[in-house]
Amino acid sequence: MSDAPTHSIVVLRGAPIAPSVHGARNPGVPFDASWLDALRVNHSAVERRTATLGTRRSVKKDAQAAWLLKAVTCIDLTTLNGDDTEGRVRRLCAKARRPVRADILDALGFDPDAITTGAVCVYHRFVAAAVDALSGSGIPVAAVSTGFPAGLIPHPFKLKEIEASVADGAEEIDIVVTREHVLTGNWQALYDEVRDFRAACGAAHLKAILATGDIRTLSNIAKASMVCMMAGADFIKTSTGKEGVNATLDVSLVMVRMIREYRERTGALVGFKPAGGVSTAKSVLAYQILMKEELGRPWLEPELFRIGASSLLADIERQLEHHVSGRYSAFNRHPVA
């Protein structure tokens, strides 16, 4: 690469950009149905707003590389397949420790140990193995729970699954809500369910998956977001990645507006996690712009922003290689694990 241009990101050079991922908890508030009565969503206005995200701002060159490196630190590197093995999980954890190739980071002015992903997300079966593989790294393990992805096992079993994952070392629990509660407007039942999950988590942070592709309307998404936060969710998350439609900018805008509303009412900061379908560097930049414009700079950090992804990292690494070399490489040169 003797002909490659030299790049450095001065604003970030040499600084670790994967801080502690656990900030203050959302304690929740007592259920108040009146908070939901005034919630209205203008679908056309949502579409107009999200349509501008990729056009009003342009992030290029060194700035784009910096944003993509920041995105890496917010990825929940995920494997949730029926054919997962302990070996695959341990390889994923190794990638989480060093998500970007050392030669690329060196060209950008970073120590290879300066950047890690935000977390590794696995089924309960692999929590202990992931905790062992990540020992000493500071990277938390997130466990999907409560009968993921459908959430249709008995409630006591859901609580036991959470407790088992916490006992094995999971610091974050990604729960799925009962979609029926949302579809029938039984908001008290949804609140009670998530409140129980929050209690079962103990010190582990709770990420509530709304399965937005299943609950169908933006009004349902707004109300479910608010109820989960009232019940003490530390993050609200779009999808399991298993629905027909997963994360979109439209549902994400509605959810982050609810986070803003909840902050204004309570002062509590709640995180956001889009999951499923965020697979390219271009798409993740749109989500970062959304967070910056709607919620502010703190929501570009892993304490308050995560991206549930498996293939995204490979495309980000590919874009970073192009930034430092001027050439694109094949995807198979950037394996996720």
TrEMBL record:
One of its GO terms (biological process) is carbohydrate catabolic process. The keyword Cell cycle does not apply. Its EC number is 4.1.2.4. Belongs to the DeoC/FbaB aldolase family. DeoC type 2 subfamily. GO terms for cellular component: cytoplasm. Pfam families: DeoC. This is Deoxyribose-phosphate aldolase. SUPFAM superfamilies: Aldolase. Pathway: Carbohydrate degradation; 2-deoxy-D-ribose 1-phosphate degradation; D-glyceraldehyde 3-phosphate and acetaldehyde from 2-deoxy-alpha-D-ribose 1-phosphate: step 2/2. InterPro entries: Aldolase_TIM, DeoC, DeoC/FbaB/LacD_aldolase. It catalyses: 2-deoxy-D-ribose 5-phosphate = D-glyceraldehyde 3-phosphate + acetaldehyde. It comes from the Bacteria. It is an enzyme of class 4 (lyase). It comes from Trinickia violacea. Keywords: Lyase, Schiff base. The gene is deoC. GO terms for molecular function: deoxyribose-phosphate aldolase activity. Signal peptide: none annotated. CDD domains: DeoC (cd00959).
